[in-house]
Design a protein that fits this description.
The protein is of the alpha/beta class. The protein contains 19 helices and 14 strands. The strands form three sheets. It has an eight-stranded mixed sheet. The chain is globular, with a radius of gyration of 24 Å. Bound molecules: FE2/S2 (inorganic) cluster (FES). FE2/S2 (inorganic) cluster binds next to loops. The site of FE2/S2 (inorganic) cluster has 10 residues, from loops.
Length: 569
């Protein structure tokens, strides 16, 4: 060993501190030579039985360990906070930044040279990347992988996407409650993340497009033996990465984020990728803005997966997965370094498509232009977004009167009123669902269609909020309005009966109320009293940035790569 590794500042010392660091580690049966200067590889695991999407990560950690040992390193697995999207209240997003802090400080405080990030469920991947980026040790991702395709009554059903559909069908009287309850067992048939192109598979796909994992990481099903092989190979690779000193800052360049934006359009990815990529970029000092997401505006939708298409992640895997998408995008991709040390173009080499209905070609796309649209106007001076590929074409240019729900409780209490004064043209507005307001910016932006309209056959309406929506959801839904209502944004001033104009083509969102009237309303406006007066949630509300900055905490932006020199005893 010629190079003094970071871990030697813990394990290479002959004094009392070195004794303490090594001796206690030896209680796990590690031999002397584990501390002779070989790479110590952290395996940062978000495994939890409360995060069912990540429940396969304990097995995958064993695969990583095999690879690390084989390559001459020493694997040490450690837990970090896990965020179960379907289980946490008020929303897992409230805790993404807490996970990022946990990951960052765990990596920094321990004597490791590189880290394998095991994540999957929506917030775990970005939370881990944010934390790892702020320490900047060599890092590589292994994702949970998607569940097997959902099955019910002989048909494929998709995580989330079909929940929204079934729920509306029950409210319309088209599906019995018994069938609704029966479908839930068939939807989630194996370990793994949502098998639609929801946020988890979107983030895994973008991780691959940014070169932060080995190729094929995104789509291999969680229970496919090849994912265990991928974990093994990742364990080998991180040891080499430590020797080659390939760090997140070498990979997470502006070019890599642009490639992620292009890939997000091609896969029909989640709107949540916007806040996550902005937050990760903030950690590595890349000046990414909401406007940059328009780079994907002309990229066609190639991946025919729910919610924008009809298939599921298992089909995407068997059709060839992300290497095929990257191959199709090869003329658009920017040169960017990956965990393999070479350019991202290598991920697409030799990629073959085995089902051109699942992964379309550029000249036969599912939709011609699939990128997210960024909206601005007096209703969203700092921006808002809409996902045209999951919206109704006829509503993308729309002007109508608003019906306003002041809070989530207001919406839930009134959405099914038979006398709700709305039509299919009405624009539904929901306030109080931003980072500070809820708090945590939950996935409630795709609010249900009012029951009185569902019964008339209405299945989509323009909906506007400062919240997010699930990556598995669909509809003509304007999200991430910034500034949010609780921060005093114009959204706070909208009243039922105001006219609003949405133009996805022009990228505008305007409240058609005079400036004088808005000023008069602003003069009497008061924010809601804070819901939390102590603990992490108070710190979050006090410091969270708006959606256009990725909803990170203001004091977490950037990184700190200084060595920790003081000892604990
Ligand atoms: Fe965990 Fe969808 S809820 S990935």
């Amino acid at each position: 060993m010629t190079k003094t590794r970071r871990s030697q500042a813990w394990y290479g010392k002959t004094d009392r501190d070195g004794f303490i660091h090594r001796s206690w580690m030896k209680n796990q049966g590690l031999p002397d030579h584990a501390f002779d200067g070989r790479p110590i590889i952290g395996i940062c695991n978000t495994w939890s039985e409360l995060t069912p999407c990540n429940s396969g990560l304990r097995d995958l950690a064993e695969g990583v360990k095999r690879g690390v040992w084989e390559a001459g390193g020493v694997p040490v697995e450690f837990p970090v906070m896990s965020l179960g999207e379907t289980q946490m209240k008020p929303t897992a997003m409230l805790f993404r930044n807490l996970l990022a802090m946990d990951v960052e400080e765990s990596i920094r405080a321990y004597g490791i040279d590189g880290v394998v990030l095991l994540g999957g469920c929506d917030k775990t991947t970005p939370g881990q990347l944010m934390g790892a980026a702020s320490v900047d040790l060599p890092s590589i991702v292994v994702s949970s992988g998607p569940m097997l395709n959902g099955k019910w009554r002989g048909a494929d059903i998709g995580s989330g996407t079909d929940v929204w559909k079934f729920s509306e069908a029950v409210r319309a009287g088209e599906m019995t409650l018994k069938d609704f309850m029966a479908a839930e067992s068939g939807m989630s048939r194996s370990k793994g993340v949502c098998m639609t192109m929801g946020t988890a598979s979107t983030m895994a796909s973008l991780v691959e497009a940014m070169g932060l994992s080995l190729p094929t990481n995104a789509a291999l099903p969680a229970v496919d033996s090849r994912r265990m092989t991928l974990a093994h190979l990742t364990g080998r690779r991180i040891v080499e990465m430590v020797d080659e000193d390939i760090k997140p800052s070498d990979i997470l360049t502006r070019a890599a984020f642009e490639n992620a934006i292009l890939a997000n359009a091609a896969v029909g990815g989640s709107t949540n990728a916007v806040v996550h990529l902005l937050a990760i970029a903030g950690r590595v000092g890349v000046d990414l803005t909401l406007r940059d997401f328009e780079l994907g505006g002309d990229i066609p939708l190639l991946v025919n997966c729910m919610p924008s298409g009809q298939y599921l992640m298992e089909d995407f895997c068997y059709a060839g997965g992300m290497p095929v998408v990257l191959n199709a995008l090869s003329d658009h991709l920017r040169p960017a370094k990956t965990v393999l040390g070479g350019d991202i173009a290598a991920y697409a080499e030799g990629a073959e498509c085995f089902n051109t209905d699942v992964i379309r070609t550029l000249d036969n796309p599912l939709k011609p232009a699939a990128g997210l649209r960024v909206l601005r106007g007096n209703l969203a001076p700092l921006g808002a977004i809409i996902k045209p590929s999951a919206a109704s074409d006829h509503l993308l240019e729309h002007e109508a009167e608003a019906y306003v729900f002041e809070t989530i409780e207001d919406m839930k209490a009134n959405i099914d009123r038979d006398d709700l004064p709305v039509t299919a043209e009405t624009i539904l507005v929901l306030k109080g669902c931003g980072p500070k307001g809820y708090p945590g910016m939950p996935e409630v932006g795709n609010m249900p269609i009012p029951r009185c309209l569902i019964q008339q056959g209405v299945r989509d309406m323009v909906r506007i909020s400062d919240g997010r929506m699930s990556g598995t959801a669909y509809g003509t839904v304007v999200l991430h309005v910034a500034p949010e209502a609780q921060a005093g944004g114009a959204l706070a001033l909208v009243q039922t009966g105001d006219r609003i104009r949405l133009s996805a083509a022009q990228g505008t969102l305007d409240l058609l109320v005079s400036e004088a009237e808005l000023e008069a309303r602003r003069a009497t406006w008061q924010p809601d009293p804070p819901q939390y007066t102590r603990g992490y949630a108070k710190m979050y509300v006090d410091h969270v940035l708006q959606a256009d900055r990725g909803a990170d905490l203001d004091f977490l932006v950037g990184k700190d790569t200084r060595p920790v020199t003081r000892e604990s005893h």
